Amino acid sequence: MLREACGLWHGEPLAGLPGPLAQAHRARLVERRLNAVQAWLEAELETGRHAEVIGELTVWVSQYPLLEPMRELLMLALYRGGRQAEALGVYADARRALLEQLGVDPGPRLRELHLGILSGDPKLAAPAVPVGPAAPVAPGSGPGGEPGGPAPVPPAQLPADVSDHTGRDALCAALGADLAPGGPAMPVVGLSGLGGVGKSTLAVHVAHAVGGQYPDGQLYVNLRGRGRCPPTRARCWPVSWARWGWPTRRSRRGRRSGPRCSGPGWRACGC
């Protein structure tokens, strides 16, 4: 997911917009991108894919020569790939750049990694086997179908919330109160209004705010209200359950059961 998210970045954010507000948002987005890239590359290293990320790390180090965390990851990737001399060269380049531009030595983490490479610290060795993501297992799906298998991971299907949501404070508070669990029935709230007024954004924002009160997770279904062919109820729920990791009933042909789309645009929408 981190790799896919980083691949969505294109060009400069808010390009051509002058002023301090645009510059502040631009700097914030760039910083968040760097954090996401660093988390992605760290995950790649921890799963034994050091050879695949050396080229990517080399590009980032050339773009941000003073960014020590990227230097650390590149040194570690080179060392785990059997290229100890090049890893030490990365440290030498970092020390030279920091002294020439800032007049300081590398930080303690970079120095510690340098010493670890020199001494062949076994803690720096690559994982023996690449680690893959664990698939959620439904209850009762153990050997022979007996209960006691691992519980499914609670779904978290909500789209990302906006970081600077403003306005509608009173409505958000009222919706949060209406959605508080604990009553005799499951609360249900519907939002109506003209297209483009922010119904979806408000719903996602409130859902994130009350999500902690629903530890069983959150499901999300795109009803394609503006499309030519909205999905039927029978098609929505099997998709949601499948994403959660629960098995769905299938027809003899192997497809998920449910009526085929009969709308006028079913060929175009791919139903």
Task: Please explain how this structure is put together.
- With 271 residues, this protein is mainly α.
- 47% of the residues lie in helices and 0% in strands.
- The chain contains ten helices and no strands.
- It is elongated, with a radius of gyration of 25 Å.
- Residues 130-149 and 251-271 have low confidence and may be disordered.
Q: H/E element string?
A: HHHHHHHHHH
Instruction: Tell how many strands the DSSP assignment holds.
Output: 0
First-to-last CA distance? 26 Å
- The overall pLDDT average reads 76
Tell me the helix content. Answer: 40-55%
The low-pLDDT segments are 130-149, 251-271
Explain briefly what this protein structure is:
The chain is mainly alpha-helical and 271 residues long. The protein is 47% helix and 0% strand. The two termini are 26 Å apart.
